[in-house]
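In the current project phase, we have settled on a layout for protein records. A sample record is reproduced below.
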Amino acid sequence: MPCCLLASCGGGAPVRDGGITAEYRAFLDARGADGPADAQDGPDGSRFELEGGRLRVVGADGAERWRSEDGWYVDSFRIGDVNRDQALDVAFVVWKSYSFGAEHPARMANDDAAVRCHLFVYSLKDGRAKPLWCSSSLPRPIYSFELRDDGEQTPTLSGTRLLAQEGAYTEDYSETAATERAYAWDGWGFSPEQATGADGS
């Protein structure tokens, strides 16, 4: 079993056309015009709003603090203190193309315009949302997930667990049979904790 869920994303060249590739447009067509809607209030008075694939954070004063980028389709999110640093975090599932086009650095070999599922974690500090951890393309798409604070706490484990219902990629982005897998926050990102599916993986 790999030591980490996936490598985190870093800086680099801008994504081609803001990620609005032909593949991403096809994904939007397959998903339909209306995306999932959800809203949750944070303990600090902030509000998290998801509508039509766009996630935004509104402060207690009503001002928008952050919104997800064009070319990102967010279909679910959860809030909590993932790394136990007393700051509010938001974990969200995002679908996007990972493609840099002509701007793609020659040292990178993972340019792929296909739309794939990712898990991002942002932290809210000083009224701003900042990336805490961002996965590369996941090997299996996440259909739904929850955050729990009932895990083991050690010098490297925060005690936050992520329980995910994962499936398989399909050409039309339809959902397949799901398997539940659990991950633990290890100080760098989410690493596999256990597998509870029939396939044992």
